[in-house]
Amino acid sequence: MTEAHNDILNSFRTVLVIMAHPDDAEFCCAGSVKKMSDAGAEITYIVLTNGDKGNHNLSITVPELVKTRMEEQRKAAAMLGVKEVIFMGEEDGFLEPNRELRRRLVRHIRRIKPDLIICQTPELYFRGDNYINHPDHRNAGLATIEAIFPAAGNPMFFPDLIAEGYPPHSIRELWMCMTPEPNLRIDITDLIDLKIEAVKQHVSQFDDLDRLERWIRERWGEEDEAGRRRYFESFKRMSFGD
Question: What is the band of 131 on the pLDDT scale with cuts at 50, 70, 90?
């Protein structure tokens, strides 16, 4: 079992969280984000898609749903101390890690200059025998990784961005959630209630909030040797030096 390493949370000044949909960040890393924000880090969210497929109710229009999901994301982010939420507006369900998206992400990475980027893993297609991972999750991770390396730190990629005032930038660390091989765990036991409340801000996505809460406590929780319930967020951590 990977040990929890909360001590590293104090080492980041600027953090960029890049996710496929509104609500993905809260599931992935709400507790870790709040801890880093409380430690003084400046947190930015990038939400790649507009979330326009996140409903089965045909009585709501697409513009109404998109507006609702943006409002829900802003509320959740505010609870966690996030400074800025950037909505990229890609169509939900059809996210593609193409050249133009890479350029847009590189521009934000060079502008924000994060020490740490948190994203979804591109390697998870399914888990167990009853969960298929959303293709947008995989493609969000792939788009992020391809923007980080080699493009964001290489002046030969998108030189027009340098002319705009955005020189190359290389990050110190990358954390990927939903990974089948985590090597980093953050203990969020003291913040599990806040994580749940942040997820619950996405009201349009859930029919039964009590069931949602039970699932989160089961999914992110485990018993320690003393029989106490502890909660963790897990990541694949990659470090690239100072």
Answer: confident
